[in-house]
Amino acid sequence: MATLLYDRLLMKFGEDPIKEIEIPKHLSGNLNPEFVLRPYQVEAFQRFICYYEKEFDFKLSPIHLLTNMATGSGKTLIMAGLILYLYEKGYRNFLFFVPSTNIIDKTIDNFLNASSRKFLFNQTVTIDHKRVEIQRVDNFEAANPEAINICFTTIQKLHSDLYTEKENSLTFEDFKDKRIVLISDEAHHSQALTKKKNNNQIDADFVPTWENTVEKLFKTNSKNLLLEFTATIDYSDRDIVHKYENKIIYRYDLADFRLHGYSKDVHILKANIDKRDRILQAVLLNQYRQDVAGKHGIFLKPVILFKAQRTIAQSQENENFFHEIFDKLKAIDIAELRKRLSIPLIQKVFQFYKDEGISDSQLAHRLNSSFAPKYCLNVNEENLDKKSIRTQDRKEVIEQELLLNRLEDKDNDIRAIFAVQKLNEGWDVLNLFDIVRLYTERDTRHNRPGKTTIAEAQLIGRGARYFPFQMDNTQDKYTRKYDNSLTHDLRIIEELHYHSIDDSKYISELRTVLKEKGIIDDDEIELELFLKEDFKKHKLYQSGQVYKNKKVDKSYSHVKSFEDLGVKKKNFEYNILSGSGSDIAVFDVQSDDIPEKIKRQDISLSAIEPHIIRNALSRNPY
Predict the structure, then answer these.
(1) In terms of domains, do 153 and 270 share one?
(2) Predicted TM-score of the model (pTM)
(3) Tens digit of pLDDT for each residue in 303-349?
(4) Is residue 162 part of a domain?
(5) Of 443, 448, 462, nearest in space to 519 by CA
(6) In 92-163, which ranges are E strands?
(7) What is the CA radius of gyration of the chain?
(8) Which of 493, 600, 483, 472 shows the shortest CA–CA distance to 551?
(9) Is residue 589 included in any domain, yes or no?
(10) Within this chain, do residues 213 and 176 fall inside the same structural domain, yes or no?
(11) Which domain holds residue 309?
């Protein structure tokens, strides 16, 4: 694969100089203080600032960059920060476009609704000692020259507006005399032209497409910027790589995101049980998470997603079946479920409620109440991009989108969601802990996972966002804490469970896709070990404890020079003993005491053999 831009920047300027770039106060200080910048987000800003402010031979003009970051890693916060940064550089007009209307309402809420928990900016934005307003505009004709003006649209609407004259809509003329920043979210949707292998067969002047419409807009002014963001980029597609090799400014994929502890630990809970028991098992586990969290003083309202395969009718049927179960769940149902389910995790759940003194009758009542119809949401309504959608339906869908965007709010009581494909993209939620696959069919093609399995993996990736909490100030609120404490009660709220039928071929296909996407470990091996009966009776097995040393990495990132190792002097003197000498008679006056001649030699560090330097460094106790 070609050397991508982010690697070329490192080779040109060095990793340490880039990491030493200071994030401006007008950027960091005007973001929502609840969103503490993570190290990889800081690095994303540093990469952009380096590219924007420095001059080098492979810099594009106008600037066109793509940021490839994992789902849930905070791409939208990066967008907000870059808007603040570019405002200080003189930019006032920002065109923000996404692939669908269903996503844009959530985006507008995050950028403009100051009362939302996900509002991206500080309550007051101040740049150069002046208060700056953030406002939504339909076009840039009457834009406020002192404000941040954002035009939100979809790629489809943008394309339509530009080629069909409408009142108050965007036109190519809007872009000629203005410096505009184009921001594309879920940018892989507008790469269809590049993905066509014979691009030379398509004449952009005669066959306008979404992709070349954006390119044409971008090039109307040499001072424009095009900033693309996506979690999904196909590095195996030569045409995509060829187009973006000089544009990918930063890459932080799902494998890095999980490795650094920012995601939930994903588990597949496979069981050879029917649809009813799979629903009960998932709901029971979901309620257990809430009760464990509550026992430790953590507010948690875990959400569960029930996934239909293809049609809205299937999803509606699932919801009706669900309500039939929890309209009349009784103690006898809980008792029988305990007998049928032998999975250790589920047995641990039952033991928890027994230890807490909660009877089967009380547990059944709790589940019936928590998952009543008013706490469930079916998200299979009309798509907002359809021209035929009625005004009332449009209003309901918008309200539903906002409800989905605020699932973590304390006043949002939704516990169960029923969906087909709608939530595979553009949905960010921290408190999704269970996904239930309510069908058994597979769609393997040529011994490879089919589209349904790939879509399921994408959905799991969206649900893998970590739910932040901490028990004391020594813990990092935003990363997993119990990877090395497998039996700790709170580990359950660091896990996402995907509930499926026990189909070995399907599970193998799903694991393949999850590994490819970096959601689970590629080198994970599952072994079943059997202990001898006499060892099980041994005191060591029954009451012994095994201790494991924790390996703590020692950081040397602060070492930039010998001075950081305690070497303050630039020149060192060392006297080497020669081993020579003489025997002088004390009372012999004729004996001359001729002192040994001292020879001096200056030796530079570069002249010393490398193995000697390494040996010296190894003896230094730093």
Answers:
(1) no
(2) 0.78
(3) 999 999 888 999 999 999 999 999 989 999 999 999 999 999 999 99
(4) yes
(5) 462
(6) 93-98, 126-127, 130-131, 134-136, 148-154
(7) 31
(8) 483
(9) no
(10) yes
(11) 265-521
